[in-house]
Amino acid sequence: MSATEEDVYFSTNPPPRNLDAHVEQARSFIDAHAAAGRRVVLLTSGGTTVPLERQTVRFIDNFSAGTRGATSAEYFLEAGYAVIFLHREFSLVPYARHYSHATTGSFLDFLEADGRGGVRPRSDVRDKMSMVLAAYRRARDENLLLTIPFVTIGDYLHELRAISRLMAPLGPRGLLYLAAAVSDFFVPPDRMAEHKIQSTDAVKHRKKNSTTSSSSNNNNNNNNNNNNNNNNNNNNKNKEVNDASGSGNDNGNESGDSTTSSSRSISKEEEVFDNFDATSAARSKSLVIDLDPVPKFLKTLVDGWAPEGMIASYKLETDPSILVHKARHSLARYQHHLVIGNLLATRKWEVVFVSPGREDRWLRVPKRRGEWSDDEVRSLQAGEVPREEPLMELEALIIPAVRDLHDAHIQQNQQKTA
Ligand code: PAZ
After folding, report:
1. ipTM value of the model?
2. CATH class for domain 1-108+118-195+287-308?
3. For the chain, which end, N or C, has fewer CB atoms within 10 Å of the first or last residue's CB respectively?
4. Which residues, at least 6 apart from 27, have a Cβ–Cβ distance to it below 8 Å?
């Protein structure tokens, strides 16, 4: 990507509100750890959103609860890294993840009354909770964990660029570990509606019939006309967009793009209903959204933003037959250091490490009893989910393996500069 393309993207897509504050936090975090000779990982986690309106009511989301990222962060801390955790707001975060997002019940279920008017952890979870709390407190008290949130694809890219550029003082001791699920497509600002996209012509109808329209009504109508114009543009292009293509993302991750979009209805501009009532909704048309591709920033990241650090990206696919091919393709295209491939269905059981000059390496959680047979390995690689729950967290294997590759990266750099 040319510098101009990068400049255009970043000058036309506004930065997140707290970018300057985040940059200052990250700068002092990185400088402190660089001075202490510690390794720092910038870890991305969770999914980015693609807003459809400036005052956002609707957005397209990417699949990811942030489990991989939050779990990896804990193992990186255990492995001696300081961690900048760039994550989707309200997705899983290290340590709290053990209690925060229960699918049944609530975190309050982990507590019980202590009989003296207070509360304490339930006796069956107390031991684990005190270990988790101790690890969390150590990370917090020793300033080893900095958490920075993002929501949209634009926020994510601005934050990633700004923070990775600060990693220079770390030299090869910096690591980028890109596990976030990043959108491949977005609505550019000049085509984005200001207000909530309307699903009926009720507002236009009000405009048509209003005898005394206030200035605020006019504003509303204008804005809604804008929306309709936007949508007309989209309809004119008559292009169906499916953002779940697995086409590879490469924006600070190797997205197999896990974006989903939900369909909404909007009336065609030329349809003006004589009477607005419930039937107008039934007569409304589907909304066609025209998205632009997000520029591919991974090469820029490798060459310009964090040139000395090691860069590891994830590649998510759902089709087993293309996973390794796509991982290799991305490595060849972006010339970074490691792609970790995983399939949606089996991502908690196995991943494949694809790195230059090395054999592909599959990491798999051990079986409860015995070894994986060849047939079982073939089933896993074909995306079949085993019946049993994984025996352990796969990140307990992934992070030490990443650390080994990072050791080699640091050594190579030392030899080059010796
Ligand atoms: O958050 P999670 O643990 O459910 O999922 C993790 C993941 C599959 C999003 C991650 O491992 C990954 O592959 N990230 C890159 C996603 C992508 O290629 O878009």
Report:
1. 0.99
2. alpha beta
3. C
4. 166
